[in-house]
Amino acid sequence: MLYLEDLNIGDKFISRDYLVTLDEIKEFACKYDPQVFHLDEERAKDHPIFQGIAASGWHTSSIVMRLWTECFPLADGLIGSEVNMRWPRPTRPNDILHVEVEITDIIPSQSKPDRGIVIYNTQALNQHDDVLLNSSTKILVFRKPK
Amino acid sequence: MLYLEDLNIGDKFISRDYLVTLDEIKEFACKYDPQVFHLDEERAKDHPIFQGIAASGWHTSSIVMRLWTECFPLADGLIGSEVNMRWPRPTRPNDILHVEVEITDIIPSQSKPDRGIVIYNTQALNQHDDVLLNSSTKILVFRKPK
Lengths: 146, 146
Known about the structure:
2 copies of one chain form a homodimer. By secondary structure, chain A is α+β, with helices and mostly antiparallel strands.
């Protein structure tokens, strides 16, 4: 498990693969994003952008969170304060996602010596290397207690 | 249902209330963010930041998406391309959330006369008027077909 002093700008973390099923797309959408292009395969075909069923962007983001927790093992957890995120392409049923993380900045706190802010970029890619999500995230990371 | 020509800078949309239960916090976290401060009430008490169980930030974001679909009724759906989001405070069990949306910019497409980009700010507030999430979102909005 990693503390602030274990991290360096340029460090990379790569997750396992995650299969996104049609059932999971519909289950998530039903609860949190009940729009027709996430729920109804026939009607989604007629949508001017999606032209077929697509996962909610928030579903893709949530899968990315899951993969972060597995591949980026911070001792006190991933505590996000801010994110900037884009979804260049929709996630489709049976896409196999993985995420690639790279640390871009580390800012020790001036006022609280036990912690700092870490900024990292993420790409979520499918099995064709299409980028489905990219983001820059700010998290709070603690030093190892003395 | 609204098209691009129905929207104006400054338009506001306010959602219904949404009760966030402990069971829902754990169910979401179990799937997408299995960190101890989202899952285990006793162990969460000792966390230096959370000091008690908190919803995943992605759970809060997903609830906001649900409330957007209900209070911001675009004819072709909410098609997000980019978001910048902050979570100033954690969502807690039994918080009652609502969202307040305000359109901040409308940019007609130069190349595709049937559509434009709409930018809107969101605040998600609980029953004490604490801001749990704020964001700026870019979405694609279509004009009414002629």
